[in-house]
Amino acid sequence: MVELFAFPGSAFLLSAVGAIGLIGGGVLAYVAAARARLVEDGYRAARLRLPAAAEDESVSDRVRSKRLELREVEERLTALRGEFGDAEKARAEAEHWERIIDLVKSDYTNLSQERREVDEVRDAYTRAAADLADERGRLEDARTKRDLLQRESEEIEHRLNAQREREDELRGLEERIAAGTIRLDTLRAEIAHTEDVRAELQRAHARYEEAERRTDAMQERLRQLEPAVAELEERKGLIAAEVEGLQAELQQLQPLWTRLAELEARQQALVAAIGTGERTAQDIEARVAHMRTDIGTLEELKQSLSADVERMQADVDRRQALAERSAELEVQHRVLEAAIAGRELELNRLQGAIDASVKRDQSGPEHRPAGVLADLLRQPSCLFADGVPLLRQAARETDEQAAIARVQTYMQDVGLDFDQRTLSRFHTSLKTSRISPLTVLAGISGTGKSQLPQRYSEAMGIHFLKLAVQPRWDSPQDLFGFYNYLEQSFKATELARALAWMDPHGELVNGEHGLRDHVMLVLLDEMNLARVEYYFSEFLSRLEGRPGPTETSAERLRASRIEIEVPGGEGAEQPAIYPGHNVLFVGTMNQDESTQALSDKVLDRANVLRFQRPPKLVESIPEGGGDYASAHLPFTTWAGWYREVDELQPANASLAKGFIDELNEHLDRMRRPFGHRVNQAILSYVVNHPDYRSIDGCRSALSDMMELRILPKLRGVEMDDRSGPALTQIEKLVRTQLDDGRLAGAIRTAATGSDMFDWVGLPPQ
User: What integer pLDDT is reported at residue 723 of this predicted model?
Assistant: First the structure.
């Protein structure tokens, strides 16, 4: 039907040829029969004309020839009949095909209008497709321009934010200067008041000296009166004894007065004796009155002395209060003078710093001020205790699996519930710090992000240093310190001190005293409170550019050295610290409105572990416990656990490389392909995974890399005609090659939940 539709005249020609063949066969048969009749008529006529014998012979010959011709004609006729039958069949078939052709022609006639409409629609579709292609080209150009404008807008916004922050800092500095000026005026007023107070204090001091002289005179007078007081006390005792004796005598005289009434008769005889007795009584009464007067005088003297003692004590108390007040005023005066000096130094610090930086000491580093690096070389508390290194003994255990099992047990002992896969991810991320020098723990607050690195360090025998990132951090000086031009010394941070003592090449600390074979983990807690690019980006680039741990060439190490900027001679080499591979860096970040997002530069060099909402909330705070390591993990042991990519099993290497290539093709369709760095990071992670020998371990490691490195970079990608199908293919790739339905479902949820790819990690189990 399709061929007839394509060549509508072919069937008609076929039927015409069949009909012509049929007619030709009939004509030949008719001619043969006519010729036979003519021959037979001629034979009859000749037979009538010739003699019988000759005629018979001739006729017999002719009859035989004619019979032969007749047989030939009959055979030809038979053949023609066969051909006629075939022609009849052909004619029937031709009629059948003619009917079909008529039907097809009818259908073709009926469909011609629809065909014209289809052709018109097809032409319209072709034109629309061309227009759509043009529109898509313009749309792609517009999207490209939009992406460029967005990046330019982000850069402009970034610069504006930086400018706003600088303006805020400038306004803050101006406010501080204004406040300092106001404070300076206040302090000057207070100084003036202090001068008045000082004058008053001097007058009070003069009064105090006068009071002290009076006190000394009173004390001298008291010392002079002490013998008289003692004599009076003695006389008082004697008089008291006499008074007691007289009182006893008076008591004894009472019966005598009673007996006087009985002795009236003898009164006359005893008149003389009575007169003598009266004079004696008067003398006694006079003596008693005199003694009472002396006692009164002594009481008055005692009261006077008590008043003098109270006045002297009051003078002593007042003198002590004045001395204390004087000391307080002196302290306040010194504090005010120090505050004024500090404010003046703060106002002049910038100019002094500029002048000092321009006019550096030209005498060379050997003539730097004494102790310029003393603070940097001070023993950090994260490595030393009372001058003795922490974890002095080296651990003898070298088996990696046993160390991971010990960490798991220790986590359970201290009440932390981290699953085995989380610990494997964290451990493997730290092992691959040669390629991915930063491990980021992200998620909601209170999920154990800060506890994991600390407890891991305690169980492993790794030194631990926690740095709380401040929102004001905006330069590497916040990490390492700065040179104080006023004190002419470098003010180092705890991190700078630790790096100096952990430096494997011992540029500042002698290798005999350093801790180059120890391992330390540095935690940047809430690292995105400030912009990571401001204070950590440059250092992160230096960490990434480090050569291998066995490299000793100074030229190759130079690019990763951290220079300590202190004054030195022109062209003199600055002292520097080399951050070795024995220092591991981990950062935590909370996902809320107060934090900054990580840039692509940081994400390209980091593994991001996300902590989701815990499936079950714990009601009590862990009380701790467990046996933490008492010996340090040697760096030689830690470095020995690292494996190169060529140690990967052939089947696992084939799976990993095939998965990476196909994944990158799908990402390229989304305009999010990755380069050599991410490829090397993924392969390094796979070969350093604890279960790197099995195919399941390889799949698990690749799933980890999808979650830790690839999917975080796709967050915010617009779900359009290009990204949607690509993510569908990535989901299929994860489901089929990695056999990870949970991760594939999370990818689909992130791709279909909104107009952009909203990746927030795997849902809690």
Answer: 84
